[in-house]
Specification:
This protein is α+β, with helices and mostly antiparallel strands and about 400 residues long. The protein is built from ten helices and twelve strands. A hairpin with a 2-residue loop joins strand 4 and strand 5. It is elongated and about 100 Å long. The two termini are about 70 Å apart.
C-alpha cells in the first residue's frame, strides 16, 4: 500500500525525501535508529539518481510478504549510461538496509530498499491508511515544498484532462466509424427499395395502392436524406470531406438551381432576389446542399402559403451575403445559440417535425471550410432569417 511520493529533480528534493522517510518510519512505529538508517539509505540512493539519471521518483510503500511487513522505498528513474549497480551511494545504502534490490528493464531503473517492521509494532490496514492520510493532508513546511505540491496538483489535473480528452476522441472516432459503416450498409437496400417503389408507381394500380406507394416512397426519400447526412457527418468530423472547388458564376449558378428550389417548396411563395454577378470558388454540390437545407428548413417550419425570400448581396468587404427569410415559428435566444450544434433539436417541436438535428451542423462546416460564416437572426414566433457568406474569388 502506497504512503507517499516525492519527485526527484534537484538537491532540495533530497531533503524532502529524507524528512518524509523519517516521518513515515516514525508513524509506523520503528525505532529512532531504524528511522535514521532507512531515511539515510533513501537519501543516498536519491542523490545518485538526481545526479546521474532523469525522471526520478521515490515512492514509500508498505509491502506485505507472507506474515512479514516491510517499509519500502521504491525508486524509479530513466536509465543513463553513467549509472550502474556499483555507485557509491548504492553501496552505502546496502549497508543500512537489509534488503536492496536493483533492476534495469528497457532503460528504466528500479531500486527497492526494504526495512522489516517488527510484529510488536502492530501494523494493520487502519494504521497504514492513517499514515497515508497524514501525508495526503500534510501542509507544506517550506516555500519550495509548497511550490512542488502545487506543481504536482497541476500535473495530476493536466494528466486527468489529457486522459479524458483521449477517451473522448476515441469514443468520437468509434461513433464516426459506426455511422460511416451503418450509412454505407443501409444505402444499398434503401436504393433498391426506392427503385422498386418508383417502378410500381408507374404501373396500373388502384388509387388506394397508388396512395400507399407514394407514402412509402416519401418515407424512403426521408430515410435516404437522413442516411446521407449521417455519412456526411462522419466524413466531416474525420476531415475526410473532399471539396471539388471551381470558379463559378454566382448568378448563373443560382439561376440553374431555381427550378430545383421551386420544387422543394411548392406550397410556399418563394421570392428570389439575386445581386449582380460575382465569381465564387466553391464546391457546387456542397453549397447547393447548404442552400437546399436552409430553404427546406424555412418551408418545414413555416405555414403553407407564406413567403420565403432568398436574397444575395455583394458586400463591400468582397463577400457575397446569402439570406433566407421565412415567416415561420422563429426561435428563442437560447435556441439561437445552440442551433448549429450537432444533433440539437428544439424540444418543443420534436414531436411535430421529423429530423436528426444535423443538417445545420453540416451546413456550418461546409460554409466554414469555404472560408465563409453562417448565422441566424430571429424573433420567437415571427420567423427566422438565416445568413451565410462566401468570399468572392480573386485570380
Amino acid at each position: 500500500m502506497q504512503l507517499l511520493k516525492v519527485a526527484l529533480e534537484n538537491e532540495l528534493d533530497l531533503t524532502l525525501a529524507y524528512k518524509k522517510s523519517i516521518k513515515a518510519a516514525e508513524l509506523i512505529g520503528l525505532s529512532r535508529s531504524t528511522q535514521t538508517a532507512f531515511a539515510t539509505a533513501v537519501s543516498e540512493v536519491c542523490r545518485e539518481v538526481i545526479d546521474k539519471t532523469h525522471d526520478g521518483l521515490v515512492t514509500l510503500e508498505i509491502h506485505n510478504e507472507g506474515e512479514r511487513h516491510h517499509l519500502a522505498a521504491v525508486i524509479t528513474y530513466r536509465q543513463s549510461e553513467s549509472i550502474n549497480n556499483l555507485e557509491e551511494g548504492f553501496q552505502y545504502a546496502r549497508k543500512l538496509v537489509p534488503i536492496f534490490l536493483y533492476a534495469v528493464s528497457e532503460r528504466k531503473g528500479t531500486i527497492q530498499l526494504k526495512m522489516g517492521i517488527p510484529k510488536a509494532v502492530g501494523i494493520s490496514k487502519t494504521k497504514i491508511l492513517m499514515v497515508s492520510s497524514y501525508f495526503e493532508h500534510l501542509e507544506p513546511s517550506t516555500p519550495y515544498e509548497e511550490v512542488r505540491q502545487r506543481n504536482q496538483q497541476l500535473y495530476l489535473i493536466n494528466e486527468q484532462s489529457e486522459q479524458a480528452l483521449q477517451q473522448a476522441e476515441y469514443l468520437n472516432q468509434q461513433k464516426n466509424e459506426f455511422l460511416s459503416v451503418a450509412s454505407h450498409e443501409l444505402k444499398t437496400p434503401l436504393t433498391i427499395l426506392r427503385a422498386y417503389t418508383q417502378m410500381a408507381l408507374k404501373t396500373d394500380c388502384s388509387p388506394i395502392t397508388l396512395s400507399h406507394l407514394k407514402k412509402v416512397d416519401d418515407q424512403a426519400s426521408k430515410l435516404q436524406t437522413m442516411i446521407t447526412q449521417l455519412l456526411d457527418i462522419s466524413k466531416i468530423e474525420d476531415t475526410e470531406t473532399e471539396y471539388n472547388l471551381e470558379a463559378t458564376s454566382s448568378k448563373q449558378y443560382l439561376l440553374d438551381m431555381r427550378d430545383l428550389i421551386m420544387q422543394l417548396v411548392p406550397a410556399h411563395q418563394l421570392l428570389i432576389h439575386l445581386n449582380d454577378d460575382s465569381t465564387l470558388y466553391i464546391d457546387r454540390l456542397r453549397v447547393e446542399q447548404v442552400i437546399m437545407n436552409i430553404i427546406g428548413n424555412a418551408a418545414k417550419y413555416s405555414p403553407a402559403g407564406t413567403q420565403i425570400v432568398f436574397t444575395t448581396t455583394l458586400q463591400a468587404n468582397g463577400e457575397v451575403l446569402f439570406s433566407v427569410k421565412d415567416q415561420g415559428i422563429g426561435m428563442s435566444e437560447e435556441e439561437l445559440i445552440k442551433i448549429f450544434k450537432k444533433f440539437y433539436r428544439v424540444e418543443s417541436i420534436i414531436k411535430q417535425y421529423n429530423g436528426l438535428g444535423i443538417g445545420l451542423f453540416i451546413s456550418s462546416k461546409i460554409i466554414n471550410n469555404h472560408g465563409g460564416k453562417i448565422w441566424v437572426e430571429s424573433i420567437f414566433g415571427h420567423g427566422c432569417t438565416f445568413f451565410f457568406t462566401l468570399p468572392v474569388y480573386k485570380d
